[in-house]
């Protein structure tokens, strides 16, 4: 498996994010329950990054880091295609994002997932993330489950 930086508006990113959004809409059909906001500018060089994991030439996972403050980063758009789940791609992407965060001076990471995603919560807990209060755009979102970790 290899992980490469991609632009958020690339065809591979659009495909993975489209699949992620469709899955989230199935799990959270309520109006206002999903938080899809992430722009290409937020993950441009110097502001964060969007990354894709490949098996050969097949894209199997993605994840992003956006900077919220000079030493604070947010994990976004973590996704593994269903047929590749259970092979460690999510963990590999999370480790990649943590290392990238350190390389750009981030000392604390936060993220938002949903209470209907026990597999994501388990992955983040096993990587040392702990529950935190809902923040930012998720503050009033009752289905959001936020976590944080010091690096």
What does this molecule look like?
The chain has helices at 11-27, 89-103, 118-126, and strands spanning 2-6, 48-55, 58-69, 72-80, 108-114, 130-132, 144-150. The protein is α+β, with helices and mostly antiparallel strands. The protein has one domain (2-150): Aminopeptidase, CATH 3.40.630.30. Strands 1-2-3-4-5-7-6 form a seven-stranded mixed beta sheet, sandwiched between helices. β3 and β4 form a beta hairpin.
- How far is the N terminus from the C terminus? 24 Å
CATH superfamily descriptor? Gcn5-related N-acetyltransferase (GNAT)
| Count of strand segments | 7
Name of the CATH first level: Alpha Beta
Overall geometric form: globular
Strand content: 25-35%
Largest sheet: 7 strands, mixed
Unreliable parts: none
Walk across the major sheet and give the strand order: 1-2-3-4-5-7-6
Please count the helical segments: 3
| CATH fold-level assignment | Aminopeptidase
Computed structural class: alpha+beta
Number of folding domains?
1
Name the helix and strand elements from N-terminus to C-terminus, one letter apiece: EHEEEHEHEE
The CATH level-2 architecture is identified as 3-Layer(aba) Sandwich
* Cα radius of gyration in angstroms: 14 Å
Mean pLDDT: 94
Summarize the amount of helix as a percent range.
Answer: 25-40%
